[in-house]
Structure formats: structure tokens, C-alpha cells
Design goal:
single chain, XK-related_adapter, 7 helices, mainly alpha, membrane, transmembrane, XK-related protein, XK-rel
Amino acid sequence: IFMVLSLLSIVYGALRCNILAIRIKYDDYDVRVKPAAYLCIFLWRSFEIATRVTVLVLFGSVVRIWVFLVVLLNFLGFCFYPWVLFWLSKSPFPENIEKELSRVGTTIVLCLLTFLYAGINMFCWSAVHVELSDPDLISKSQNWYRMTVYYIVRLMENAFLLLMWYIYRTDFYLYVCAPMLVLQLLIGYCMGIFFMLVFYQFCHPCKKLFSSSITEAL
């Protein structure tokens, strides 16, 4: 019961962040989110987060040390990714975050922001993407390429972790139909991707402002 309540609260938070991100990106327009959009986001985030957490738990139950390496690589990769993009852009260091902050204080704030960004992306696609070279510190453009790469890599990673769990599973899972569980989790993650595609293709409140639809981008 507590796990279900925790999942629902996290999914609700992800849903609210999605809506907030849309309103921030398109603050010049009157954004009206329809019930179908709420439903798609809820199903998208539910399948995505639930399957991701389950995969990590299963993998960690059989190879407890390696799961820390997987989590650490994910966290560090997403944490340094905005800084790498910022370094490649050769933009000046952000100074307009808060006038009262010194350069050290600004650096600490940016590090905390990237920590939060990395923590979210370990489990689901972030609704707001950090861009340190932008004055608002977030990217307001819709990048289909990043999203496609993210979900392809994440699906492959989940499949690999499930394969390792299947190979090294213990007698604790003797009465569990392992192939069926693996198939259900992979289908569950694909269902999350499916509802994400439905949302961006049909239910996004600002889909008319996209330069290209997600099907054209794919």
C-alpha cells in the first residue's frame, strides 16, 4: 500500500512538472490542458517510473554491488551533461541568477540544479531540460533527437539489466515466471513510450507551435 501511494505521489509530481514546463516554455500563449492530456501524461509517467524502479530493484537484488555502479554512472552522466554543453557553447558564466549571489554562490546553485536534473533523469525523461548557456537556465526548444536517443538507450539499458537479473537470479525467484516478468516489464516501458508519443502527437496543448511533429521527427 505504501509503495503504491509513493508511486502515485511521484507520478502526480511528474505530471505537475510536465504541465508547469509547458506553461514556462509557452508563457506567451494561453495554455489550456485537456483531460486527455492529463490522462496521457499520467499513464506515460506511471509506466515509465514504475518499470524503471522495478528493473533497478530486480537487478540490485542479485548483483548488489554493480547496481551502485549503474546508478553512479547514470547520475554522473546526466549531472555533467549540461556542463559539457555549456563548455562547448563557450557562453559566458551565468551572472543574472540572483544579484545578491557571488560567483561561488552561483556555482553552488547551478551544481544543485544539475544534481536535481540528474536525479530526475535517472528514472524518467525530465520535463524541463537544463541549459546553462540560456539566461533562464532551461531549454525552451523541443528537441526530438535528445528524447529519441534517451528512450532508445534507456530501453536497451533496462533490457540489459533484466537479462543480467535473469542469468544471475537466485532461488528466491524460484516460483516467479522469470521470462514472463521480463516481457511484462519491457512491454510496460514500451507502453510508457507509447503514451508519450500519443501525448506529443495528439494531446499536447501547444502542438500547433511545433516546427515538426514527433512522427515526422522520428
